[in-house]
Amino acid sequence: MVVPKAKVPDVLQVYHSGCSGGHLGVKRTLLKIRQRFYWVHCRDDVEDWCRKCTSCAAVKGPQIRSRGALKFYNVRAPWERIAIDVAGPFPETESGNKYFMVVMDYFTKWPEVFAILNQEASTVADKLVHEVFCRFGVPLEIPSDQGRNFESQIFQETCRVMGTQKTRTTSYHPQSDGMVERL
After folding, report:
1. DSSP secondary structure letter of residue 42
2. Secondary structure class of 111 (helix, strand, coil)
3. Across 24-156, where does the E strand assignment appear?
4. E strands within 29-147?
5. Among 162, 95, 178, residue whose Cα is nearest residue 128
6. What's the order of all strands across the beta sheet hosting 111-116?
7. Which of 10, 16, 46, 166 has minimal Cβ neighbours within 10 Å of its Cβ?
8. Full-prediction pTM beyond 0.85?
């Protein structure tokens, strides 16, 4: 039976919200209506009706995914946990440096930036030991991205000898190490 446009809300009311309807959702409501009725844009009208149904919305709730809880780092002292990253290449300086090594303390948010010739693991480890560890002490933990310079045997061995735990941030997700990435 072809339904005139003026009677479409009545059909939708009976087959979705009425006694025989049961608020069954788009697929089942559409299946029940198509057994007996036809009109142009029937699917669109059923989808719109179900989306605007207050009873369905109250029961089903919002269709958003909840995000995971943020991890809280309980840092008790300065230079207990530091973040590290290498930025560059930049235009070469007079002394031949092309990269910057950024080190930031999680407790005080104090940044230290060092110009370095390259981003090789030996250069980064040497600068870290002689410029950071000698001045501020050895941290308990160093989170960094998964760059080759931080995942190398040289850097891992430096952390092991110094008694520092080296941790990784999430791959291809610079926001997880945002403190040094923003600098």
Report:
1. H
2. strand
3. 82-87, 99-105, 111-116, 141-144
4. 82-87, 99-105, 111-116, 141-144
5. 162
6. 111-116, 99-105, 82-87, 141-144, 165-168
7. 10
8. no
Q: How far is CA 117 from CA 18, 84, 89, 124, in A?
A: 75, 17, 10, 10
Q: Which of 6-15, 29-38, 42-51, 60-69 has the lowest mean pLDDT?
A: 60-69
Using CA atoms, how far apart are residues 36 and 27, in angstroms rounded to an integer? 15
**Paired residues of 166 in beta bridges:** 142
User: What is the C-alpha separation between 150 and 161, in angstroms, rounded?
Assistant: 15
Strand-strand pairing, 141-144 and 99-105: unpaired
At position 123, the amino acid (one-letter code) is T
